[in-house]
Each structure stands twice: as C-alpha cells, then as structure tokens.
Q: What sequence folds into this?
C-alpha cells in the first residue's frame, strides 16, 4: 500500500530507529508533576476521554433521572418509591383518581425540580462557552459580571413593576452590557497577565453593578419591593412556577441550539487569536455569537432564579476532567452535569434544615474551594 | 506562488518595515533573518493577512490576499506560530483536525476526509503515536511538530513558519529542520524565519535579511549570506568556516 510505504519513510527517517526515539516517548516532567502516568504506558491513559464520553453521558442522564425522582419524593410530604411509581403511572396511563401525592408531585415539586435542573444546565453551558471563548478556566457568568449585569437589569424591572417578559429582556440586556464592558476594559489594559486581568475587571465591574443594585434597593418600597428584590437576589427556587419554566425553556433551548450547532468551531476559539484566524476562522463574528448565546442563557436563568453563583465555574471543570476539552463532547456533558449539580443542591437546600437554605449559599460553599484550587493550578497549563 | 511587492507593514500608524519585495515560485524556500525586533513576526502576520499591509501588495496563488475570504486565505497559506501556548489539554489529534477548519462550514464537524488528512499529516511527521496525548503534556519539540502537522492538514500550498526552532534543544531543532527539508522536497512553498544564518544556508533556497524592517539583502542563500552581510545584520564580527560536506557555518569572533 502507498500509505504503508510513506509510513516506513517516516519511521526509518529517525523516529524509531534513532536513539532519541525512546526519550521522545517519555513525557518530560517539566511543569506537570500532578499527573503521573499510573501504569507507565501513556497509551492507556489517553485513549479514554473521547471513548468514555458516551458512557459518561448515558450515566449522567441516569443519575439525573434518579435524582429527579428523589427530589420529587422528598420534602415535608415524603413520597416513597411505591407511591411515586403509582403517581407516575396514573399520570402516564390517565387511569385512577388524583390524590394529595399527585398534587404535591405535579403541581408543587415538578416546576421547582424542572426549573432548578434547567437553570443548572443553562449556567453550566454558559460557563463552558465563556471558558473556551476566553481561554480561561477561571471565567464564568459570575466572574465575568454577566450575572450581576443580568441581576441589575432584572432588579430594574422589578423596581418599575414590569412584567416577567420585560424582566427577562432586561436581564439579558444587562448581562450582555456587563460582559461587553468587562471585555472592552480588559482588552484595553495592557496586561502582564491577561488571565487575572479579565477576572479582576469582572470583579470590579460586578461590584459597581452591585452598588447600583444597592441604590435601587435603598430607593425601593421597603414593604413590598425590598423583600421581593432581596429574596430574589439571594437566589431561590422556592417560588419556581410552571410559568418560570415556560419563559426559561425557549431561551435556554435557543442558546444551546446555537452552541451545539457551532460546537466544533468553538474549539478554535480556545487557540491563540492569530492561530485561529490563520486557520480561517472569523473570530470576531464567532466570538460575538457565542457571547450572545451564552448570555441569553445566563440572563434568562438569573431573571427566573436570581444570582446563583459558582455553577458556571465549577461544573465545566468537572466535565472537562471526565470528557476532555473538546467542545462538542464537553458541552453536552457540562449541561447535564449542571442540571444534576443544581438539582442536587436545591434538594439538599430544602431538606437539610427545617427552613430552606438559599441554594446560592451551598453553591458558594462548594465553589470557593474549587476556585482556589483552579487558581493555584491555572499558572500551570490546564 | 507568493508575490510580495513594495510591502510596508506595521501596527496601526506605527511603521515596522518597508520596501519588502520578493517572488517565490512553487517549491521555493525563503529564510527571513534579522535581529530581535527587526520585524520578522510582523512581516509574517502581514503575509498571512492577520495584519493589513500599510502599503504595497501581496498576491498568493495569483490573487490579491486582501480580496480573499478568511477561509480561502487559510486554504492557501498555513501558519506555524513561534510558540503555541495551549489553554486546554486538547489531544494532538484534535489540534491537528483544527487545521481543517478552513474547509468546513461554521456548523460542520470534521468528517472522514478530514480525519484522513489529519492522520496523513501525523504520519508524514512520524508522530502518529502522539495522537491521543494532550498537547499540554508534550515537550516543546513535540509541540512544534504537532503545529507543523496541523499546518499540513490545512493542505495549503504555502507554509509560513515563524522561528520554528526557537526555544528548542539541539536534538529537537535538528528534527524539526529535517522535517522542513522533507517538506521542501514535496513541492511546498515555504517561508520561515530564523536567528541562525547557518540554518538558512542549509535549509533554504533564498534568504531575506531584514535590518530594522528594511531588506539588507535578498538573494540566493549563498550570495545573501556572506560574512559581510551577516556582520552588518547582527553587528558582530563573524568568520565563515567550511564545515565540510558542502556546508558553511558562521562563527562569531
């Protein structure tokens, strides 16, 4: 075969017959002490991440379904597996009379479970996209100021007594404006360390937006608006309704649709700018499209559930550890993981104590240490 | 194949270099030499269409570079950057597949033909064994070969390499240069920059010497790389030494 002949040339040339051939297959230890080869054979460790992706996805979907059933069953009116089975059967077959359990499952818990999972999926997908886009494992909707911008937009909406669609739109515009300002400022600063500059700019812009939110709270009617704004900002799914789900779903589906359609090409945005452009990518258009899509998902989530931090930062990282950085594998994994993560957090938040713990507090407890570990590792290549 | 006429280049209003004119036909290799800050990288970025020229014209494959769509440009010119700073641990195979981007629509994923082209590129460079490994865990020399493979997967007739051997050790340097020699034999038009006059002598047909952005010499390597020119270019005393086997090397005094 022609291919074989060429292959032989490649080998004879030097790669296997020369004495250097052996040293080339041994990984240089510079800078990556944390990942020793367990069995000494590099082949064994590396083939896996692409191959195990389907398994990871199927496993994650199963976990999500089981978790959803647990979440639907747990609460002040506990529903055991047998009763849950009958509740579901009644729904599917349409036979049998609906009782208390059915009302609890379908009217009270289902909207909350669905909204929590969808928000988790949206924030994780957005975080994954932002991280690829900025070649930075530390960015997320919250560290880029997107969440704060969306929150300011939504608070403005609440302040002026707007309807939920206007609040949604205001959250989207606020998020887009915030990320625009952050990127603009960060790109104008001649940075010694672009990784950290972007994060710091995000923090600064977010604090300014926070000040604006405080001003609105100060001006708000202390009996009606103020508590509404405060509780909403804390982030909660307690009041999640079918209507919330219905406003959230189209935005998240549209955003995911764009991200999935462009998934392979988004990989090229993770390359240095010059390389991506020399490979023929119109980075400006692509980057803008991805930012708009990711911000749409973030804005819709924030409008529904307030600021729930850390999901978009932590989950993409976990997904990347399992399926690698290739975006068309990473995005679905991160999306499902995000749904699992936030659904688990919300279920714990409402069953941990007699009163509900805001889920944002739990995500912060998980997120802070992970962020510190990432920061320590980011100096090294990720 | 590559036709550059009275090119002036730089960033915004700042002029980095000027009066660069050369024509490379198919299969020719040009080495670009110049001190640090002489404008080699800026020249390359302009040749690749990453920076707009300040004056003059660039034609590649008979068409004006600025009239080509980005994807068409990438189908004609492939780029091997000086140093690739990886952000995420993409596998070598994934990196090389990215070389196919200019042949795929924005919504497409690489297909069988693209995988075959990537596999072929890996094979040509003898790095098939690296395919599943994360780019972050490779040595500098291996990474350079991966970038060359990605450029080959692009299947462009012109290959632009920016200091392909900078920051490589002696062995990796020789290995990358041997690959460049092999590519020269395959009919690619190659432009590369280097800090080593010896390298240009041994691995290029022609040399362009850039001193503060202006061409000091542009000629066949044997005529351009004389001891006098090298002295003028780097402002050090050098001696040309016969290294045997038809090779000449420069030694600074």
A:
């Amino acid at each position: 075969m022609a291919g074989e002949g060429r292959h032989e040339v490649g080998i004879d040339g030097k790669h296997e017959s020369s004495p250097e051939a052996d040293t080339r297959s041994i990984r240089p230890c510079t800078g990556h002490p944390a990942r020793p080869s367990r069995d000494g054979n590099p082949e064994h460790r590396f083939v896996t991440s692409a191959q195990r992706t389907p398994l990871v996805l199927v496993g994650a979907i199963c976990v999500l379904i089981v978790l959803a059933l647990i979440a639907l069953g747990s609460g002040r009116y506990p529903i055991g597996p047998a009763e849950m089975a009958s509740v579901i059967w009644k729904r599917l077959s349409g036979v049998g009379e609906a009782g208390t359990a059915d009302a609890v499952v379908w009217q009270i818990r289902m909207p909350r479970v669905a909204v929590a999972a969808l928000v988790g999926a949206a924030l994780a997908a957005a975080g994954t996209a932002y991280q690829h886009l900025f070649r930075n494992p530390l960015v997320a909707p919250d560290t880029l100021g997107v969440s704060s911008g969306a929150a300011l937009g939504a608070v403005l909406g609440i302040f002026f007594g707007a309807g939920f669609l206007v609040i949604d739109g205001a959250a989207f515009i606020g998020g887009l404006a915030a990320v625009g300002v952050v990127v603009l400022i960060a790109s104008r600063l001649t940075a010694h360390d672009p990784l950290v500059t972007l994060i710091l700019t995000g923090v600064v812009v977010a604090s300014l937006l926070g000040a604006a939110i405080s001003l609105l709270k100060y001006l708000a009617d202390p009996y009606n608006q103020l508590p509404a704004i405060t509780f909403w900002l804390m982030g909660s799914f307690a009041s999640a309704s079918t209507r919330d789900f219905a406003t959230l779903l189209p935005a998240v589906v549209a955003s995911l649709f764009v991200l999935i359609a462009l998934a392979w090409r988004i990989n090229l945005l993770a390359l240095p700018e010059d390389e991506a452009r020399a490979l023929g990518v119109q980075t400006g258009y692509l980057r803008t499209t991805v930012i708009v899509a990711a911000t749409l998902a973030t804005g819709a989530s924030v409008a529904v559930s307030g600021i729930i931090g850390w999901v978009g930062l932590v989950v993409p990282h976990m997904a990347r550890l399992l399926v690698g950085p290739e975006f068309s594998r990473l995005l679905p994994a991160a999306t499902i993981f995000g749904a699992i993560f936030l659904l688990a957090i919300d279920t714990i938040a409402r069953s941990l104590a007699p009163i509900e713990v805001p889920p944002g507090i739990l995500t912060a407890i998980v997120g802070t240490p992970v962020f510190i570990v990432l920061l320590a590792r980011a100096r090294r290549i990720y | 194949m590559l036709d550059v006429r009275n090119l002036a280049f730089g960033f915004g209003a700042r002029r980095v270099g000027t009066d660069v004119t050369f024509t490379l036909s198919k299969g020719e290799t040009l080495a670009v030499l110049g001190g640090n800050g002489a404008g080699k990288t800026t020249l390359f970025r302009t040749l690749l269409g990453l920076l707009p020229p300040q004056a003059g014209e660039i034609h590649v494959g008979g068409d004006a570079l600025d009239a080509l769509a980005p994807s068409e440009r990438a189908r004609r010119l492939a780029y091997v950057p000086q140093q690739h700073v990886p952000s995420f641990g993409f596998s070598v195979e994934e990196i090389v597949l990215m070389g196919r981007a200019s042949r795929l629509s924005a919504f497409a994923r690489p297909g069988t033909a693209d995988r075959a082209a990537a596999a072929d590129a890996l094979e040509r460079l003898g790095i098939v064994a690296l395919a599943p490994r994360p780019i972050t865990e490779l040595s500098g020399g291996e990474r350079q070969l991966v970038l060359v493979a990605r450029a080959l997967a692009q299947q462009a007739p012109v290959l632009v390499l920016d200091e392909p051997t900078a920051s490589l050790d002696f062995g990796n340097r020789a290995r990358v240069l041997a690959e460049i020699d092999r590519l020269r034999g395959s009919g690619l038009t190659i432009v590369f920059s280097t800090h080593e006059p010896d390298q240009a002598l041994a691995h290029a047909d022609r040399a362009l010497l850039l001193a503060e952005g202006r061409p000091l010499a542009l000629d066949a390597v044997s005529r351009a790389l004389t001891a006098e020119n090298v002295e003028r270019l780097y402002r050090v005393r050098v001696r040309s030494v016969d290294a045997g086997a038809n090779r000449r090397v420069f030694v600074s005094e």
Q: What stands out?
A: Residues 100-133 of chain A form the longest helix (34 residues).
